[in-house]
């Protein structure tokens, strides 16, 4: 007999995260493009970002046929939030600059899958690329980062919004993420966690 799942956060009903998910407004729009392999991932952080931000949209797929319309969001200027040599560091919104807020386009998947999304959707490569000038350490204690400074999708979105919209903060988005991680640590047992993840 399968467990009943929450239709909103997709977690088993007994572990529903909805009470921890905020409903935050933001000047910045966030467009999350999720690789299908991430949808059923236990730590679906793009889903948490979309649920916690009122100005966010989550799309799942490999090829996004309506990408031109998505990128032409009226009142916004689109940029790809993804590291790279040509990526410019994000800065707080300032008076006198282009007063249109960003639409941050965020590919969600492993590095390989996110890179595949960029390859399969060439329009993404034509966007200005932005990144975080300073990356705070990841709170994702259950995985080995593929490279220094690697973040989950949710953490990258939170850090980007904290920079762009300072002094407004978006750390409340991390509460369900941290609860998920604590729940997984509890399920595996603290001793197993310490043996396998604290080296």
Automatic annotation (TrEMBL):
Its EC number(s): 2.5.1.25
Short name of any one Pfam family annotated for the protein: DTW
Molecular-function GO terms, alphabetical: tRNA-uridine aminocarboxypropyltransferase activity
GO BP annotation list: tRNA processing
Protein name: tRNA-uridine aminocarboxypropyltransferase
Family: Belongs to the TDD superfamily. DTWD2 family.
Key word tRNA processing present: yes
Species of provenance: Pseudomonas donghuensis
PANTHER family, sorted: TRNA-URIDINE AMINOCARBOXYPROPYLTRANSFERASE 2
Record keywords, A-Z: S-adenosyl-L-methionine, Transferase, tRNA processing
Highest taxon above the source species: Bacteria
Entry keyword Secreted: no
Occurrences of domain DTW (ranges): 2-189
Signal peptide residues on this chain, from the entry's feature table: none
